[in-house]
Amino acid sequence: MTLAVINGNNHQQLRGVARVQGDVPADADLKTLVGNGYLVITISPAEGERYQGVVGLEGDTIAACLEDYFQRSEQLPTRLIIRTGESEGKPAAGGMLLQVMPAQNAQPEDFEHLAALTDTIKAEELFTLPANDVLWRLYHEEEVTLYDPQDVEFKCTCSRERCADALRTLPDEEINSILEEEGEIDMHCDYCGSHYVFNAMNIAEIRHNASPAESAGPLIRGMTG
């Protein structure tokens, strides 16, 4: 695996892509997949400067690497449980994140106690039980506050307009060369598989600041995110 990227926002909208070379063994561990790679987390707040943290992929799993990141970069004790397998004959995955809130004065032994309880969760329980039942089974002797759930969904931010903006940054010579060789410019989104195709007329409209969406019609092929 040469690259794995996940984009997300505070609305629980996610998109991701992974690039691999050759076949991936079914039992491959993280070191086999990525070698001596790095975990990069970038946070872009609505206000203020963008923040980026980088740690080496030194753990045996992605969960362990994320725990290491939070401990080093945020100084927040973190336990991340990820379970994968099958449920009713279909691939399934589930997870839990246990983390000390920044403003809390929790004692280390309190976190270790809760982490030990969380480690007992079984894959089948995560796959099949409602969140209320999972929390009750794990922490029925603790004080728990349950907030309203938020749905997690795939959402891609690509669009024909954004592709047109990218084309505006390219030299005319480069665009003309592609049009002469290919007859059109096909821009592909690795996240959702969409294709945005621009012919010579579309490029002329872009150069004159016209909206390429007006002539999109059948020139958009593939899935939309």
Automatic annotation (TrEMBL):
GO CC terms: cytoplasm
Alphabetic keyword roster: Chaperone, Cytoplasm, Disulfide bond, Redox-active center, Stress response, Zinc
Molecular function, one GO term: protein folding chaperone
Record bears the keyword Metal-binding: no
One annotated GO biological process: protein refolding
Top-level taxon of the source organism: Bacteria
A Pfam family per the record: HSP33
Xref: NCBIfam families: PRK00114.1
Originating organism: Kluyvera cryocrescens
Gene: hslO_1
InterPro entries named in the record: Heat_shock_Hsp33 (IPR000397), Heat_shock_Hsp33_C (IPR016154), Heat_shock_Hsp33_N (IPR016153), Hsp33_helix_hairpin_bin_dom_sf (IPR023212)
Protein name, entry field: Heat shock protein 33
CDD domains, per database record: Hsp33 (cd00498)
SUPFAM superfamilies on file: Hsp33 domain (SSF64397), HSP33 redox switch-like (SSF118352)
